[in-house]
């Protein structure tokens, strides 16, 4: 009898009804092309899929939402975890247990009922486990640290069964799972993650027109030099399409937005942001909002699309980095590039209580670039050109902002 004969979820091969649906996700470029898809519904199903791959010497991959798909699977076994989305909050311990297919929106909502917040990112549709396995830089990252730092335990499916991994039981495996992904031939079935006592934040997005973006980048470097860690911020710059669904003040324009999230008071946050607003003209406002609405600060698209991207952690945000970023991926680029700059430091820079695998903790900034896949090699060429230009200030990439072909090149090195 095969290991997958007793799986409760669907087991599909190419040509079966529903096979292609299991492969779909937020990332439409470079889809997985497995020989077998197992739509798991329980930890036992995951163990069966892992055992089947091991018994037959097949490669293995896991997909939840398909946001962060890195290296597409060619052949082998794909575990689709979207049916495993259980969430259980322990408000007294400030811990949430999430199953393998849970998305951040579910955790944010469940934690909010108890006045708590998870270390979630800017896109509520992202899968919790994949995000956390890669480190995880969240909305309040400078205060809460890496999401992986807050992992209490991991349930890991292996060919022989479920292994409950903690700092005490398996220190080296626990370290790897917090920032470096899963060991080969295994898959996570659940995680326990620490929550924080955060109910409301003060924040918003401040928009800066194209002609002021160079000045914004210079001002941002100075402004972030000594901010308290309760304020986390980032910049996203891109050309917005001239389409009716785009807000009028952004439509058809190249705009940079400074995204701000703070647990400080309204008065303190406004005081801290005032020097930046004085340095460059901005539109938009900061306001108090529930943490459950924090993703509105970023307003990332929720429609699936094909994209590729890469990143690097920076030892400093040198003026030459800003100049190269705008020259290569700015408004004059031949394809649309979404340029990102995240201010790190604070809790992100501190060693965790228990060692984990997050690299480059001392990096003060993360530079990223993302483009739609257009059937040419232009996006990848521009991304490589940018990474080459900033190499003198680069410490190396972080896993969660590499997508498609860009991730495949990193894995091949």
Automatic annotation (TrEMBL):
Pfam family, one: FAD_binding_4
Keywords: FAD, Flavoprotein, Oxidoreductase
Protein name: FAD-binding oxidoreductase
Domain FAD-binding PCMH-type: 30-198
The keyword Oxidoreductase is assigned to this record: yes
Domain of life: Bacteria
Cofactor: FAD
InterPro entries: FAD-bd_PCMH, FAD-bd_PCMH-like_sf, FAD-bd_PCMH_sub1, FAD-bd_PCMH_sub2, FAD-linked_Oxidoreductase, Oxid_FAD_bind_N
Protein family per UniProt: Belongs to the oxygen-dependent FAD-linked oxidoreductase family.
């Amino acid at each position: 009898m095969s290991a997958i004969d007793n799986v409760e979820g669907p087991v599909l091969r190419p040509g079966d009804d529903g096979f292609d649906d299991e492969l779909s996700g937020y990332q439409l470029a470079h889809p997985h092309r497995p020989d077998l898809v197992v739509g798991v519904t329980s930890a036992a199903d995951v163990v069966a899929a892992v055992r089947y791959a091991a018994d037959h010497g097949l490669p293995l991959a896991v997909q939840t939402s398909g946001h962060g798909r890195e290296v597409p699977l060619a052949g082998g076994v794909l575990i689709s975890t979207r049916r495993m989305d259980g969430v259980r909050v322990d408000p007294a311990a400030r811990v949430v247990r999430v199953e393998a297919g849970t998305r951040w929106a579910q955790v944010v909502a469940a934690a909010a009922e108890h006045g708590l917040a998870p270390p979630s990112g800017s896109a509520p549709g992202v899968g919790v486990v994949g995000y956390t396995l890669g480190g995880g830089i969240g909305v309040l990252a400078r205060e809460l640290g890496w999401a992986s730092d807050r992992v209490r335990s991991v349930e890991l499916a292996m060919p022989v069964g479920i292994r409950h991994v903690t700092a005490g039981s398996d220190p080296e495996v626990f370290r790897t799972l917090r920032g470096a992904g899963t060991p080969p031939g295994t898959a996570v079935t659940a995680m326990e993650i620490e929550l924080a006592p955060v109910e409301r934040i003060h924040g918003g997005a401040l928009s800066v027109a194209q002609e002021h973006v160079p000045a914004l980048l210079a001002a941002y470097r100075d402004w972030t030099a000594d901010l308290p860690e309760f304020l986390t911020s980032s910049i996203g710059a891109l050309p917005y399409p001239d389409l009716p669904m785009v807000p009028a003040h952004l439509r058809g324009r190249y705009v940079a937005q400074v995204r701000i999230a703070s647990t400080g008071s309204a008065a303190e946050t406004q005081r801290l942001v005032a020097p930046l607003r004085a340095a460059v003209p901005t539109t938009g406002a900061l306001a108090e909002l529930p943490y459950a609405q924090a993703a509105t600060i970023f307003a990332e698209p929720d429609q699936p699309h094909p994209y590729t991207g890469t990143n690097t952690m920076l030892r400093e945000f040198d003026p030459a980095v800003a100049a190269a970023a705008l020259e290569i991926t700015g408004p004059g680029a031949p394809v649309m590039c979404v340029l990102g700059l995240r201010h790190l430091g604070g809790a992100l820079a501190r060693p965790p209580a228990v060692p984990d695998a997050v690299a480059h903790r001392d990096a003060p900034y993360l530079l990223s670039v993302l483009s739609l896949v257009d059937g040419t090699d232009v996006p990848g060429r521009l991304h490589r050109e940018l990474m080459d230009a900033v190499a003198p200030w680069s410490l190396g990439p972080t896993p969660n902002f590499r997508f498609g072909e860009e991730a495949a090149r990193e894995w091949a090195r």
